[in-house]
Q: What sequence folds into this?
């Protein structure tokens, strides 16, 4: 499955962005998916993950209450709604597909989209 993330940009602190991850190739609905991020000088970290059906989700502590992961299998698209953004959320955001409980070793990664949050 090929993935492409969209929706990054520059936003002021407190603002919102919605990222999209569009899948093509293999059947997207067969895969769980997740969002990761990597800030300069930092390792890539999990933001949120969702099962293939959408009935299971998991969030990193920093994402709880501010970010929402979702998907629309009819559109082969996953989403990450980010609210109350903080400057420390600045990073390149990546989407991945595979086992939602262990995405770090998946071979299916999309190119990232840059999110910059100004103070």
A:
């Amino acid at each position: 499955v090929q993935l492409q993330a969209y929706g990054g940009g520059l936003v002021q602190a407190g603002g919102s962005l919605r990222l999209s991850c569009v899948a093509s190739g293999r059947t997207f609905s067969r895969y769980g998916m997740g969002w990761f991020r990597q800030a300069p000088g930092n390792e890539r970290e999990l933001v949120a993950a969702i099962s293939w059906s959408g009935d299971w989700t998991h969030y990193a502590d920093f994402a709880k209450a501010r970010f929402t992961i979702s998907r629309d299998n009819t559109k082969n698209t996953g989403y990450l709604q980010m609210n109350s953004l903080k400057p420390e959320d600045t990073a390149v955001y990546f989407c991945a597909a595979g086992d939602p409980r262990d995405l770090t070793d998946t071979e299916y990664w999309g190119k990232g989209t840059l999110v910059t949050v100004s103070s």
User: Anything to note?
Assistant: The mean pLDDT is 95. The two ends are 37 Å apart (CA to CA). DSSP finds no helices and eleven strands in the chain.
